[in-house]
Amino acid sequence: MPGDGWHILTEVCTRFPLRSVGSPGERDHARFVxxxxxxxxxxxxxxxxxxxxxxxxxxxxLRLGGPEGEAFEALPVVFSGSTPPAGITAPLAYADDVxxxxxxxxxxxxxxLLLFGWFGDFSTTQYYRAAVAGxxxxxxxxxxxxxxxxxxxxxAAAGCGNLPVVSVSHATGTAILRCGVAQAFLRVRxxxxxxxxxxxxxxxxxxxxxxxxxxxxxxxxxxxxxVQPAAADNAVGAAMAIEVxxxxxxxxxxxxxxxxxxxxxxxxxxxxxQFARDHADIVPRCQCQFYYDGHGTAxxxxxxxxxxxxxxxxxxxxxxxxxxxxxxxxxxxxxLDPAVLFADGVPAVQAERHPQRTWHTQKDVMDDLxxxxxxxGIHLYAEALYRLVNAPEIPFPREVDEAAREVSRRxxxxxxxxTLAEAAHWQEHLS
Length: 431
Hints:
Blueprint: H1 6-15, H2 24-40, E1 43-57, E2 61-64, E3 71-72, E4 75-76, E5 88-95, E6 112-116, H3 126-134, E7 138-142, E8 165-168, H4 170-179, E9 183-187, E10 190-204, E11 215-221, H5 231-249, E12 256-262, H6 270-278, E13 286-292, E14 301-307, H7 310-323, E15 328-331, H8 339-342, E16 348-354, H9 371-390, H10 402-412, H11 420-430
Parallel strand pairs: 5-6, 6-7, 7-8, 11-12, 11-13, 13-16, 14-15
Antiparallel strand pairs: 1-10, 2-3, 2-9, 4-8, 5-9, 10-12, 14-16
Helix pairs in contact: 1-5, 2-5, 5-9, 7-9
């Protein structure tokens, strides 16, 4: 029976609580993971550099009325802008939804707009560009969530001008509306720049006569949003994968298992893209990806997202039934790191726990996780991979349908800029 990875998780959350892409914490985390992989018996273990658009975020300050007013929790929206060092005090305006806002209206110039819902998302900068052009002082986004959520605009927003955008909880947005205060104070500092993230790769080779040259890929992401310690998203990922590999290191294996720990999943998929370029010989031979993200919560439901054929879904369903692993299964395109490879026809499964109530918040801590939940997710992948690397006939094809590939291509197309120069060029092209 595999371990639960709890001691690894504890070390990651304690020693590397801040793991934003390209940060010292992320680099140290990558080296730590590489060391554990070598100890587990993997070969050709190394960290690989990945050029990324990075950021450094200082603590954010939001107060009502002015610099001495009541403080509320707020988190900067990644790739948005900054206030002057002393902060700004601006009149408040409110809108129910971004689609109802006329950013060219003189009424909004110089104001801090409190907005319910979203202000753009991973796929568009149109609202951000319009707000910059309209002269807004800031945007305060009240999400439908219990806590302030760290989310990001596309990296291309870095080339669209300076506009501070922060996220607050639904309760905070409601409190701002009800208090009747006419202005808000905001101080946010976000430094954007070119950086280098770290992928970690290694291979657990076959230790018996190889059946063929096909391989399986066990992967996760090593970076995190700028919250601490980001336990479920995604300190658990590497901990769980390492336990799977430790379990399989002592078993018979007739095919290779590759490991990839990606950087920059949160904002750009740069790590997964770089892996596909650096290991182009692996992609055509990869039969399936096994991915971890968002696992381990004590309260929730096991969920497996399957992108591939019904035969792949049935294979995992059978394994889960055999080991007594209750789970819900969703067959749909995966829009996280695995999308990079299944755009080229490589199927993927992702094990997670649902719901993620503390996703991208300062409340994503180890107290919300449970060793038993981790152990169950580790057991599922360890058993599935053991069967597959030793199966004379793999019970599913290496295939995703064209609709899923197209979803992946469209999603990937929104993540082009990896440097400030590329972001600026992108903005010039739009103009």
